[in-house]
Amino acid sequence: MPSDKKLLILHVTSEVVPYSKTGGLADVLNGLPKAQATLGHKVYVVSPLYDAVDRARHGIKKLGKSVSVTLGGRSFDFQISKADMGDGATALFLRNDDLFGRPQLYGNGNQDYEDNHIRFGSFSAAIFELVRELGLAPDIIHCHDWQTGLVPAFNRLNSLNVAPTVTTIHNLAYQGQFPADVLPELGISWDVFNPEGLEFYGRVNFLKAGIVWSNKITTVSPNYAQEVLRPEFGAGLDGVLRAKGGNFTGILNGADYSIWDPRNDPYIASSYGPDDLSGKQKCREHLLEKVGLKGVIGPIFGVVGRFASQKGFDLIAQVIPSIVAQGGIVVVLGSGEESIQKAMSVVADAFPNRVALKIGYDEELAHQIEAGSDFFLMPSRYEPCGLNQIYSLRYGTLPIVHSVGGLKDTVVDLGADPENGTGFVFHSFDAGAFLQAVSNAFGIYNDKPRLLAARLRGMAKDFSWGQSAKAYLQLYRQAMKM
Question: Which superfamily is assigned to 278-462 in CATH?
Fold first, then answer.
């Protein structure tokens, strides 16, 4: 096959910016397809049409076409809509209000919807009917996370063989596990309920199905791809991934610099770039005023993230008193697990003159924290890729990270490599190691020439989607030869 042949790529996902989002998956499904379309390929992104999606705002139009699928004797009808994502990429939506006309994408609070296996099983089955109804002939079907794990399974088990499939694991911890008795509801034979199929310790595992029956498997950074082959990071699927051999690889996520760049960010108080950093000081002053800390002196340590144990917020809570004692300021934006939220509230209340906490998500404030902070705290227990450390580099905000996953792939430690360092990296997941990295940050803050040089090196890094898009295209061509 000629390497310059333009492909028809069909991405299948449970969420995509700007229509639906609970996490970084949605951002990837906006950035990667657009980058591929920019290279001249025909790219579609298929997702459910949730009740919360603003049809009018996003120009979503009904196509007047529908498809029907039958699983376990039950029929499910879907209406097809589309929207222009920009840059040549097209969003397609499957609408079934009984399944997806709900307040949230996956569940209420911390409780998943009990019929998620039916919701995403029928959505996966409907992909093939959508392809037929619209007359598409995809060269590759690229599936994302457990919600689409049955697409490769149906493609192979039902002898559909519409196209080679690739599955990307954005976070191995989320696998879509269900009781064994859901198998007949999905119209899947008991013959594949075994360790070589989708059985996982007596349960049905959607992500495992995607891994087993896809031609190629990827995850979102090279280092994370190595980590998940080991039991401590593999979440029970390390053996399944090892069995894929050379068909499993890691491709680093990209950042959308059209949204995250201080030179053209509409959310921040003053634009700035590597040629003129004076605007960063104005962003600092604006941030402090906004969070009620106007005039407070000292380095600002920013935090933006989901309150989850994965993200290392227990370490952040332990280290904040020391940051304050050394003259630092901490600004935190996030929400999530109640226990972490309470712990962060307690420490914020203890230091009201130096710690600001905003519960919830605020896109504008997230940008302002990146621009106004001196350092960004990201001590994740594990991190498949991570995007905030990449954003921080572009904003001249030095990241302080745990040496795992994509954090290790994107941040160079100033202590280990002073000439090329872009941040601070600690290797042992404990408060002592994290605190040492923070103390090193205080040291460079008082050494303005070194601080400026590190900022400029970080701002020069390019983690845009272009290179990642090309890597996926090469992978697709390999899958098409299998």
Answer: Glycogen Phosphorylase B; (3.40.50.2000)
Q: Where in the chain is the domain with CATH 3.40.50.2000?
A: 8-254+466-480, 278-462
Token output for 257: 């610099």
Q: How far is CA 179 from CA 81, 151, 169, 186, 187, in A?
A: 33, 19, 22, 12, 15
Measured CA to CA, the distance from residue 434 to residue 424 in angstroms comes to 9
CA distance 224 to 87: 30
Determine the angle formed by the axes of helices 150-157 and 206-213, rounding to 10 degrees: 50
How far apart CA 197 and CA 167 sit, in angstroms, is 16
Q: What are phi and psi of 235, to 5 degrees?
A: 50, 35
- The whole-model pTM stands at 0.91
Closest C-alpha to 36, from 471, 387, 385, 391? 471
The rounded distance, in Å, linking the Cα atoms of 170 and 362 is 23
Radius of gyration of the chain (CA): 23
- Proportion of the chain in helix, strand, coil states, percent, rounded to 5: 40, 25, 35
| Nearest-angstrom CA–CA distance, 58 and 112 | 27
End-to-end, the C-alpha distance of the chain in Å comes to 12
Q: Which tens digits make up the pLDDT trace of 292-304?
A: 999 999 999 999 9
Can you name the CATH fold of 8-254+466-480? Rossmann fold (3.40.50)
- pLDDT tens digits for 437-473? 999 999 999 999 999 999 999 999 999 999 999 999 9
